User: Fold DNA-binding HxlR family transcriptional regulator from Methylobacterium goesingense.
Amino acid sequence: MRDDADSRNSPDLAERFADWQDLGLDPHRCPVRDVLSHVGDKWTTLIVAALAGGPRRFGAIHRVIPDISKRMLIQTLRDLERDGLATRRVFPTSPPSVEYSLTPLGRSLLGPLTALVAWAERNHAAIDAARTRFRAET
Amino acid sequence: MRDDADSRNSPDLAERFADWQDLGLDPHRCPVRDVLSHVGDKWTTLIVAALAGGPRRFGAIHRVIPDISKRMLIQTLRDLERDGLATRRVFPTSPPSVEYSLTPLGRSLLGPLTALVAWAERNHAAIDAARTRFRAET
DNA sequence: CCGTATCCGGATGGATACTG
DNA sequence: CAGTATCCATCCGGATACGG
Assistant:
């Protein structure tokens, strides 16, 4: 499963990293760390994916991701809203209904995110194989 | 409100998500979740970036990422090794020296990862602004 | 229907001290 | 130099119950 086509971009990361070094690499002020932790947390990516198709109501998202608690769903949506990746619209119906949708900024994340997801799907077999091999050697 | 420039890639994610649904979306067996959590954890991305330029010794990595404990450095390197993203070579010198480097699989991750990092760098200003705005409104 | 509040177990990760 | 072992604080996130 060689994929050297992708490694043409790789020098970039080494260079950027060197730049971060020069800036002090304070993890608490590093925007990259900030954003990536967002991506890596338990629910953000799934929710962004759920909103990728268009606006959804709270309950709809919850139905689409059954194993998230309301607590975590709200919290993650709030974080997305806070960071300007999603918006929240309240319709004063009764009972109230709330609709979430991605902002342009949020949608601009879909490209890089999809690339990463595609990589995961392409290579999870190789990763599984590596794990099995690793366990066998120890 | 449409932002068609960036959203050309976006239908993919919505479709994939729908597929995951059909497969049951068991988080513990979802390869995507598995990989993304890897990317999102505190140190993996930094270490991969540090190895992007070529093989490095344990101490060299540690010097390049000063604020990681040896414990976490080892643990993260082990995980990378386990997943087939990095290799570990021991040179039986005295004192011993150990060299880590990315595998082809690991290097193939650099492309998607760099795209995500580039997004983070492009948009962290917008995110910061959104946060300030959000705090102001509450 | 949408959200909040509280409690609590387990994972994460830092500090420190010790080996070969 | 490279790694291990132990202890301990913090945080993430689930369960539950309640409110508008």
About this structure: The longest strand of chain A covers residues 86-91. The mean pLDDT of chain A is 87. The helical segments of chain A are 10-22, 31-40, 44-52, 58-64, 70-82, 104-108, 110-136. The beta strands of chain A are 56-57, 86-91, 97-102.
